[in-house]
Amino acid sequence: MIEEEKPVQFRFEAVRYRHADNAGRQALKPLLRRWLSARKIDAGVVPLNTYHDLVEIRRRRIEHLIQSGWLPELAGRRWYRPNCPPVGILMEYRRQYHPCNQTFCPFCWVRNYVYQTYDAAERVLYPDKYVKRATLDVLLLTRQHHLAAQARRPYGLDRVESVIADMRGQATLLPVPGLAGGASLWSIQLADSGEYWTIGESTLLLVPTETPSPWWPGTLERLVSPSRKQLAYSLGGLLSYPQALLIGPPEWVARLLNYRRARGGNFRTFSTYGRMRTRGQRYDEWALRQLRDEDQV
Ligand SMILES: [Zn+2]
What we know:
It is a single chain. This protein is an alpha+beta fold. It has one domain (about 10-280). Helices cover about 40% and strands about 15% of the residues. It contains 10 helices and 7 strands. It has helices at about 20-25, 30, 40-45, 50-65, 105-125, 155-170, 230-240, 245, 250-260, 285-295, and strands spanning about 10-15, 90, 135-150, 180-190, 195-205, 220-225, 270-275. The strands form 2 sheets. The protein has a 5-stranded antiparallel beta sheet with strand order 6-3-5-4-7, with helices on both faces. Strand 4 (about 180-190) and strand 5 form a beta hairpin. Helix 1 crosses helix 5, helix 1 runs parallel beside helix 7 and helix 4 (about 50-65) packs across helix 9 (about 250-260). The longest helix has 20 residues, at about 50-65. The structure holds zinc ion. The site of zinc ion has 7 residues, from helix 5.
């Protein structure tokens, strides 16, 4: 059993262009825009060096978060995985490296939310590989909720948690006839002033073409029978990574990580429902491989 990971120099081979990879790049666009134009990101023209830079920023972030009070040992492991593998890229010895599954990690954000949502939506929308256009329409809904951080309890994460729990309850109650399934993701950011939290809600719904769009107190976009390519780009943008987790003030991110750890699996920020329901399993390639390895015994 490994107890401590030493940072290694990854050896990247090529950028990947599956639809899910394109969705992942769209979700990381806010970060990639530091180096690249939107046009290049859309085309997948991302130099391998960019991924090395992202890996380095993520490793430095671990150090800053620990200096700011993050207690990674609470994560139940004695190591904190400097070698969490990047997404959307082919690399040597990929199977040796294990995802960290930490809230702040942009790679695990893509693995756990974007890939999982894309895979589930694709499974429902395109019954077989010859189907080019979705059999249903896709609704993309977003809204933001601002929550004052209380003066005496400046971080008030218990309130953030209960607001998200309420929103999760409402997400499945939308009056949408024939709703086939959906997924919702909540992202959390603290304003630079530290005065309020912003909770961003992103929901994707699969609905029959004849179903009118519901009233929604935020922005709503409808993809009419989209192609896989359209779905990937729009879904990635919808589930955009909140870059403050990686480059914003480390103190509140450290608090958030500690709080989530203390709440165990109870503080959930991702839901799937209907035919998009997954069994709550994270997109953990390492865990899947363990299962497969066991199968072969
Ligand atoms: Zn990770």
